């Protein structure tokens, strides 16, 4: 164990720190010198996605959260309508599938029973299935029509970290690939996206280097009864993942809320000193999220803001801030999730929990 963990106390921390490398590896060989995205694995399938009219993204847990961000990327770049489903729900709701439907299943292990069953059901109904998976020899990879492997390497900790960020990256690459086929992506945005992707590994390194602030915050929430994550748009999808991470390993109750929904119920739960983590990376929604921060502050909440470097103005609203480097909005989740992974890790460490093997949970759920 010690050898594999190297300098790190837990696999989870090691895997968090591997992300610059796993992002690099997932990009490798997939962006050519003309900055076009190509997947050698998909070469035999050239043109296979041209007629796709509707996309479902189906997964469980963290992979489902990656799908929420991935769906937004695909819609934004290709204008193909995307619907995200939890695998254990998908099969039972008689989804509308035609031969122009693409179902994207996402799975770190490639063995999750519900995701595999959703794949089989989708194929039975005539859809093409693309698997985004970290294990190219898995059942899901074997049974899908197409496979995009993520290059996260073995993920040992039950709480998924590097698999999630490589799934987001794979989705971004696939969105650009689809947009190239459908000619829906302008040159300028294409160039900015590729440049933004290439900058990510170094930017994640930067976030990891500046982890002290979030470490102190994490230690301070260890006795909290409850914690809330809020955000809008993609920040909401990242909030869901941050909340799941915290629950999985710290056992602190938490909820993620679309910031604009707070006043429809959750605001009633905010008391003096309730910790709230506010994700504020969508600058066009900045004012709206800040007004939500003010709502929770007025009820006594203690707010940690996660925002983009230079946005010091947020200090007028939040109590503490963690800055992430500036990037395109579609790429910000890959950066914004890193402090949330660290908050979950350090809160759990302060509580003395078994971080890599949390109670009641399994790395791979092969029963329905
Ligand atoms: C389990 C794991 C989670 C994971 C989920 C889906 O619940 O503990 O970390 O996100 O399964 O797993 P998959 O291998 O399909 O991504």
Structural notes for this entry:
This protein is an alpha/beta fold. 44% of the residues lie in helices and 16% in strands. Strands 2-1-3-4-5 form a 5-stranded parallel β-sheet, with helices on both faces. The longest helix is centred in the middle third of the chain and has 23 residues. The protein is globular. The mean pLDDT is 95. The site of 6-O-phosphono-alpha-D-glucopyranose has 15 residues, from helix 4.
List the helices and strands and how they pair.
Blueprint: H1 2-5, H2 11-17, H3 19-27, E1 54-59, H4 61-78, E2 82-86, H5 87-90, E3 101-107, H6 113-124, E4 128-133, H7 139-143, E5 146-149, H8 162-182, H9 187-209, H10 212-220, E6 226-231, H11 234-250, E7 253-258, E8 275-280, H12 286-298, E9 302-308, E10 320-324, H13 332-351
Parallel strand pairs: 1-2, 1-3, 3-4, 4-5, 6-7, 6-8, 8-9, 9-10
The structure holds 6-O-phosphono-alpha-D-glucopyranose (G6P).
6-O-phosphono-alpha-D-glucopyranose binds next to α4.
Subcellular location: Cytoplasm
Function: Catalyzes the first step in hexosamine metabolism, converting fructose-6P into glucosamine-6P using glutamine as a nitrogen source.
Catalytic activity: D-fructose 6-phosphate + L-glutamine = D-glucosamine 6-phosphate + L-glutamate
């Amino acid at each position: 164990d010690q050898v594999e963990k190297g300098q790190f106390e837990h696999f989870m921390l090691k895997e968090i720190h591997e992300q610059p490398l796993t992002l690099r590896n997932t990009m490798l060989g997939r962006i050519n010198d003309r900055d076009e995205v190509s997947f050698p694995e998909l070469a035999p399938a050239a043109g296979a996605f041209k007629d796709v009219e509707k996309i479902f993204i189906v997964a469980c847990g963290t992979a489902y959260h990656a799908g929420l961000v991935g769906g937004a990327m695909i819609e934004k770049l290709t204008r193909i309508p995307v619907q995200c489903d939890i695998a254990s729900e998908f099969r039972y709701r008689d989804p509308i599938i035609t031969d122009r439907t693409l179902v994207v299943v996402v799975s770190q292990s490639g063995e999750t029973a519900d995701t595999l069953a959703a794949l089989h059901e989708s194929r039975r109904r005539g859809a093409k299935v693309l698997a985004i998976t970290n294990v190219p020899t898995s059942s899901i990879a074997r049974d899908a029509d197409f496979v995009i492997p993520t290059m996260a390497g073995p993920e040992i900790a039950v709480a998924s970290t590097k698999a999630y960020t490589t799934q987001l990256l794979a989705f971004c690459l696939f969105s650009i690939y689809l947009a190239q086929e459908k000619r829906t992506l302008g040159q300028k945005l294409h160039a900015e996206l590729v440049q933004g992707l290439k900058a990510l590994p170094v930017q994640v390194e930067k976030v990891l280097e500046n982890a002290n602030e979030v470490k102190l915050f994490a230690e301070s929430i260890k006795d909290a009864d409850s914690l809330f994550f809020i955000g809008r748009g993609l920040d909401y999808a990242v909030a869901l993942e941050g909340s799941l991470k915290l629950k999985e390993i710290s056992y602190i109750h938490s909820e993620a809320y679309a910031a604009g929904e707070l006043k429809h119920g959750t605001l009633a739960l905010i008391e003096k000193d309730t910790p709230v983590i506010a994700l504020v990376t969508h600058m066009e929604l900045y004012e709206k999220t800040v007004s939500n921060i003010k709502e929770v502050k007025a009820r006594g909440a203690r707010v940690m803001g996660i925002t983009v470097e230079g946005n010091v103005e947020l200090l007028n609203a939040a109590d503490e801030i963690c800055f992430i480097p500036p990037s395109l909005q579609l790429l910000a989740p890959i950066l914004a999730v890193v402090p949330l992974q660290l908050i979950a890790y350090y809160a759990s460490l302060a509580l003395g929990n078994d971080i890599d093997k949390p109670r009641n949970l399994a790395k791979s759920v092969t029963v329905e």
